[in-house]
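Sequence of Methyltransferase (Longibacter salinarum).
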Amino acid sequence: MNFKHQDTQITVAYAAILILLSAGVYYLVNAEVAVLATLVAGLTGIVGLVLNVYRSRAKDDIAQNEHIQALLFVYEMLDVEAPLPDLTEWAISPQLAATLIRLVRDKQPEVVLEVGSGSSTVVMSYVMEQLDRGRVISLDHSAEYTEMTRSQIEKHGLSHRVDVIHAPLVDTEIGGEVWPWYDVGDVDLPPIDVLFVDGPPQSTRSLARYPAVPVLRDNLSGNAVIVLDDAYRPDESEIADRWASELETGPPEIEKSPYGTAVLYRTS
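Predicted 3D structure, token representation.
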């Protein structure tokens, strides 16, 4: 059974406990005491449930408002030629899209390298077009998603700003361990000013996105900005800390979004 809100789960659990309590009192004491105990426990539970529902809905309202505000910011900042791809589910959130817009605008990079293509490719390409400089290079291990992203880029008239490259995952040795990572052997990578890591999928192995910095470190410019999605997950949190240590950037900055965004600033 699926529950949409935690308060529903609490209601079911409380009802089960109440039934057991009433039955126990009935058999151990008497029916009148059982009724009284049931009424007291029921009223207490209703008050607790109402408070819990209120807190739950308040959190939902705050999250929804943040989502809407970020989405409005994205559309205000980008002069789009067509509706943007979905910014929900597996795609980047509006909050992350807003963070990418701000970082790319502030950095004004020549090269943005993205690991894992999608809605973010379109968003960052629009910013590069507005800046009238540079390119986005996007790697994707899935041939299907590569074509889907290319189709979106063409739809928005941004093909001249983006290279979407199909780069299947291949075994890559790092520090004596083997990691599935994007095959970039035939890709001529220029110095990278902004690196956005949103792949490969978590299912490929533990710390799946860790290879990004070890593999691409020599291609990072002296003042590169590294962005990692899903920073609230334990694996990504550890990855961000590892990168910070290896690049000596100081602790990663965590930007607020539904899944968290870690940002590291490299200095020469």
